[in-house]
Each structure stands twice: as structure tokens, then as C-alpha cells.
Amino acid sequence: MRPTLRRTDKLAAIPAFQGTGESLGRANQIIGGPGQGSSQSLAELLERVHEPVRERLDRVSASLLTLREGESPYLTDMLDHVLTTTGKQIRPALTLLASNFHPNDGRKPETIAAAVELLHIASLIHDDTVDDSDTRRGRATVSSLWGRNSAVLLGDYLFAAAATFVCDTGSIRVIRRFSDTIMQLATGELNELGVAYDTRLIRDDYLHRIYNKTASLVATAAEAGVVLSGAPEPVVRGLKSYGHNLGMAFQIVDDILDFDATREEVGKPVGKDLAQGIMTLPSIIAIERYPDDNTIPAFFERPGDAALLRRAVGLVQDPAIIEESYEEAATYCRRALDSVAELERNPSLGALEDLVYYVMGRRS
User: Fold this and answer.
1) Which letter, b or e, does each residue of 129-155 get, where b requires 16 or more Cβ atoms within 10 Å of its Cβ?
2) How confident is the model at residue 10 (pLDDT cuts 50, 70, 90)?
3) Would you tell me the crossing angle of helices 319-339 and 281-289 to the nearest 10 degrees?
4) First and final C-alpha spacing in the chain
5) By CB neighbour count within 10 A (0-12 exposed, 13-18 middle, 19+ buried), where does 25 fall?
6) The pLDDT of residue 43
7) 351 membership: H or E segment, kind and range
8) What residues form DSSP beta bridges with 128?
9) Could you tell me which residues come within 8 angstroms of residue 148 by beta carbon, excluding any fewer than 6 positions away?
10) CB–CB of 290/298 below 8 Å?
11) CB neighbour list of residue 195: distance below 8 Å, 6 or more residues apart
């Protein structure tokens, strides 16, 4: 049975989350998960998130595979590579959970959930291509297997496929929101490239960028699901706000893990973002705390200097910097929980709460 905790207890406990390997253990203490700090506990938490929509997620996955029908072997091989490996499915699960607060037949939310997942996959393919990444989470990228040109075209194909799913919902509101989200994703990535190797970036710039590159899609995932369920506007606003704040927390934790996790956990070298000149929240805090004695500007002036990179990464790994970064993520987690506090209590609300703790506790 899922443990019952008062929401106020959860809110009070979230700021206690810290990095340096403690975040998952602390998350399990809050949610009553089995074991402390084990990957199995995190997997079980994700299972609880999926549980209310498991069968519907399976139908969404099956609908994605229909893209392979009638295509050439070359395209089919690439589609198999990106569509048959089940990821965490956080975004389509969020769409389906958000649709469970108003009676509906489920068909349109499942359609938009497929579109959300395709958009996410397409954006990852393009990101990996732009970043010249050979692997993602330990698995070869499309660009490393089939080349950059094919990777860009596959991403374009999936963007277009996502658009056809969105059109099938027949909702102009959702179509418009989806189009806006594609522009925001591109804007976020372009802005990231535009400020590379620039230590003058401030927190507000960073927060605006991560909203565009990450939180915009998470917000749309929630908003589209609840809109297509026919729920009243107060419910729509609450779930959209939940998605916005969850997405912000997700990206902040992702940026923390670039310094606070191991290569095995995140599937990339520690400090890779900094090595590419990308200023994220932990490195911005490091500049704020140590404006004069700081190796980050020196490394940005000599980006090929491995010794300077090691020193810069070591500076950002200061436990106080990691803790402050987790506290910022916790602020968005509290806002996410507040956004859905007045919703009807049902299994999907419990899953949304669990998803907040999964985001705070994840190590990959």
C-alpha cells in the first residue's frame, strides 16, 4: 500500500534534500520507500508514478511504433533505435495523469501523450547532434551511428510526426500551445549556444533559458492532457503550473548532477556542461560566491586546458554550492505541490506527488 503522509510534512522536508549522494536517500525517507539510496528504490518510485496510467502508456508506446509501417529499411532501423528503447516516459505519463481529473474517454489525451513523447525524442536527437555526443545514457546516439545529416533529418521527421498526432486532437488551443513549445525549445538551445563561455550570465538569464529548453515541454505535457480532458480552467491552471515548476526543478537537478553524480550514473563525463562553456546554476553560484578567486573564467579563456577544467569542476563541487543548488530545485518542487494542493484526491494526484520526489531524488 502506498504510504500516506501529510502534505505539510512533505513540503517541510523538501528543503532538506542535498546533493553529494544524499538526495535519493533523503527522498526515500520522505516517501517511505524501501531501502535508503538504492537504485531499486528509485525504480519502485517511478513505478508508482506510472501505476495509474500503465495500460494507457503501453498504448501510447504502441502508437509510436506505427511510424515504422511502410517505411524504408534505413528509416525503420533508425526508428527502431529511438522508439523501441523505453525511457522513463515522464512526459507522456504526466500528460495522462493530468487528464485524470475530469471524466473523458481517454483517446485524445493518449494521442497528445504520443505527440509529447515524439517531440521529446526529436529534441534529444537534435541536442545530441549539436553537442557532438557519441552516447546518451550509455547508448549510442543516432548521429554516431548514422551520421549528423541523417540524425538531423530523423529529428525533423519526428517533429513532423508529432505535429500530425497533435492535429488529430482537433484542438486549436493545443495545436497552438504545441507550436509555441517547439519555438521555445529551439530558443532555449540557441540561447545556450549564444552565451557559451560567458561568465556574465546571471540567474534570471539561466532560469529563462531552462524554462524554454526544458520546462516549456513539461508544462505543455500537463496542460495538453488536462485541456483535452475537458476540465475547468482552475484545474487547467493548476496542472500547467505544476508542469512548469516540475520542469524547472527537473532541469536544475539535471544541471546539479553534471557535477554531483558519477559518469556511470549520468552517462557522460562529470563537468561536461562546463567543459562545453555552458554556465548552469551550480557554476553561476560558484561565480557569485567566489567572484575574484575563481578558475572558471580562466578555463573559459583556455578551454582546452584539462588542468584548469579539473580545478573549475572541483570548485563547483563545493558541498555548499551543491546544497544551494538543491535548495533552488526544492523551491520549484514546493511550488509544484502547491499548484495541485486543491485538486481532488485520487491515485493520479498521488502519482504527481511521487513524481516530485522522483525528480528530487534521481541520480540519472
Assistant:
1) bbbebeebeeeebbbbebeeebbbbbb
2) very low
3) 130
4) 26
5) middle
6) 87
7) helix 347-361
8) none
9) 129
10) no
11) 201, 205, 209, 279
pLDDT of residue 25: 52
CB 211 within 8 A of CB 252: no
| Cell output for 324 | 544551494
Kindly tell me if the per-residue pLDDT of 224 is higher than 50: yes
Specify the residue for cell string 529534441: 123
Single-letter residue type at 134: D
Instruction: Name which of 53, 70, 51, 66 is nearest 168 in CA terms.
Output: 66
Sequence letter at residue 74: Y
How is 123-192 classified by DSSP, letter by letter?
A: HHHHHHHHTT-SEETTEE-HHHHH-HHHHHHHHHHHHHHHHHHHHTT--HHHHHHHHHHHHHHHHHHHHH
- The letter for the amino acid at 33 is G
pLDDT above 50 (res 163) = yes
- CA-nearest of 270, 299, 300, 296 to 284 is 296
Tell me the C-alpha distance between 270 and 275, whole Å.
Answer: 9
Local confidence band at 139 (pLDDT 50, 70, 90 cut-offs): confident
In tens, the pLDDT along 70-92 reads 999 999 999 999 998 778 999 99
Q: Which contacts (CB < 8 Å, 24+ apart) does range 131-139 have?
A: 131/276, 133/268, 135/267, 135/268, 136/267, 137/266, 137/267, 137/364, 138/267, 139/85, 139/267
Q: Quick one: what percent of the chain has pLDDT higher than 70?
A: 89
Residue pLDDT, tens place only, 261-279: 888 788 788 999 999 999 9
